[in-house]
Write a structure and sequence with these properties.
The structure is a single chain. The chain has one domain: Cytochrome P450 (Cytochrome p450), CATH 1.10.630. The protein has 17 helices and 12 strands. The strands form 4 sheets. Strands 1-2-8-5-3 form a 5-stranded mixed sheet. The chain has a 3-stranded antiparallel sheet with strand order 4-12-9. The longest helix has about 30 residues. By secondary structure, the protein is an alpha+beta fold.
Length: about 450
């Protein structure tokens, strides 16, 4: 049984439009119909909720009436029952076990890893490159060392290739005729996902075994090996693999995209880039550290604004397990509910001139509602690695700008692909030119 909601009329045309461009459709539909948009697709009731009170109800106040949506549950083919995909008591137990390993006090240790990898990237890369591809490799290397205390370049390249296969196949499982192909059929999207996931699993199992054979350390994997939950229980082999896969694969993607889009936006706003270079130059002839985070306020504002305009996690999906009242409407059991983070971030009621790149909006001290800005999700299931990702992005961007200049090679903003994350369709072609150390403030 459906519910009558404002939204596009018909079924086939809205469905085809949504499959072709879900981000653009949600932006347009919310601009036209308001904070609540409904769409009926065969037997599926699709509801997108942009209003702050409705978002709070789904993610916090009435969260017990929802589970992850079918798309997110499908990620278990790759991530098992890790933090991103698990539910209920299983999820709560894992969250309590893992969250302490990613506290602010612990992630300061990783600042040197962030900066060292960024410095080596600057020393290695020059000329015309796809910055998105480069940032994926850079952040994968950071996660490999920070999580597994591993630095094998071949492993990083292998995981990067597997991630690309998984991303491409997931789009086809959701928005292509190929979604009907069974998983056992060779070359079907689900078959390709399973094959790539097997490669990831084998690699992670080997890295875990290698880590067990080495002395204790401060890396995240060692903390997970030592962590004990209620009753003194440690993670079993399957749990350790699932959480490692989640941290490894999801842990690098958000930061890579934030850095990619930040450079793209800075390339179109030279005044903002000049201010960033001046801020970095003020640190003197040395690389940034965790202690410099307060002095890198503009750099952090650039990252936050990039994640507002191009949120890597562009939507949150839930499915109602029982009828639930949200605002003026009662949603039926089985409804697919979207929290459209991208559309929320471009809501003029939340952000004046929402389509304009204005990092200063993060420096003016203006109060913001709890449910206005959600680059890492919200509620009880907010991303456990959000502090890690933000510090990583700020310190890596500062290190890159200190040692290199970036020239955009495409005259138009990137076209977007809404996969598991929001990605540039054709990457980001740039020309990288190294500069003398300490010359970040020079034009």
């Amino acid at each position: 049984m459906g519910v009558d909601l404002p939204g596009p009329r018909g079924t086939l045309r809205p469905l085809l439009a949504f499959n072709a461009d879900p981000v653009g459709c949600l932006r347009r539909w919310h601009a036209e119909f308001g904070d609540v948009v409904g769409l009926r697709i065969a037997s599926i009731q699709l509801v997108s909720l942009r209003g702050a009170d409705d978002v709070a109800a789904v993610l916090l106040d009435r969260q017990q009436a929802f589970v992850k949506d079918a798309f997110t549950r499908g990620l278990s083919r790759v991530l098992g029952q890790g933090l991103l995909t698990s539910e209920g008591a299983h999820w709560r137990g894992r969250r309590k076990l893992i969250a302490p390993t990613l506290r602010r006090s612990h992630i300061r240790h990783y600042a040197e890893v962030f900066v060292a990898h960024a410095r080596r990237w600057v020393e290695r890369v020059e000329g015309e490159v796809d910055l998105h591809h480069e940032m994926m490799g850079l952040t994968l290397g950071i996660v490999a060392e920070g999580l597994f205390a591993a630095e094998q370049a071949a492993d990083v390249d292998r995981v990067g290739a597997l991630v690309e296969q998984i991303m491409a196949a997931h789009i086809q499982t959701e928005r292509s005729w190929q979604m009907v192909l069974p998983a056992w059929l060779p070359l079907s999207p689900k078959w390709r996902i399973d094959r790539a996931a097997a490669g990831v699993t084998a690699l992670i199992d080997r890295l875990i075994a290698e880590r067990r054979s080495r002395p204790p350390g401060d890396d995240l994997l060692w903390r997970l090996l030592e962590a004990r939950g209620e009753g003194g229980h440690a993670l079993d082999a399957e749990g350790l693999r699932d959480e490692s896969a989640t941290l490894f694969l999801a842990g690098h993607e958000t930061t890579a995209l934030a850095l990619t889009f930040a450079v793209e936006l800075l390339g179109r706003h030279p005044d903002a880039m000049g201010r960033l270079r001046a801020e970095v130059a003020a640190l003197g002839d040395r690389l940034p550290t965790a202690d410099d985070m307060p002095a890198l306020a503009w750099t952090a504002a650039v990252i936050k604004e990039a994640m507002r305009l191009y949120p890597p996690a562009w939507v949150i999906g839930r499915e109602s397990v029982k009828p639930v009242a949200i605002g003026e409407h009662t949603l039926p059991a089985g409804a697919t509910v979207l929290v459209p983070i991208d559309a929320m971030h471009r809501d003029p009621a939340r952000f004046p001139d929402p389509g304009v790149f204005r990092p200063e909006r993060w420096l003016d001290g203006a109060p913001r509602g709890r449910w206005d800005y959600l680059p890492f999700g919200g509620g009880a299931r907010v991303c456990v690695g959000n502090h890690f990702a933000l510090m990583e992005a700020v310190l890596v961007l500062a290190t890159m700008v200190r040692g290199a200049r970036f020239e955009l090679l495409r005259p138009t903003p990137p076209r977007l692909m809404a996969s598991i994350t929001l990605r540039p369709v054709d990457g980001l072609p740039v020309r990288v030119t190294r500069t003398p150390a300490g010359a970040a403030g020079c034009e």
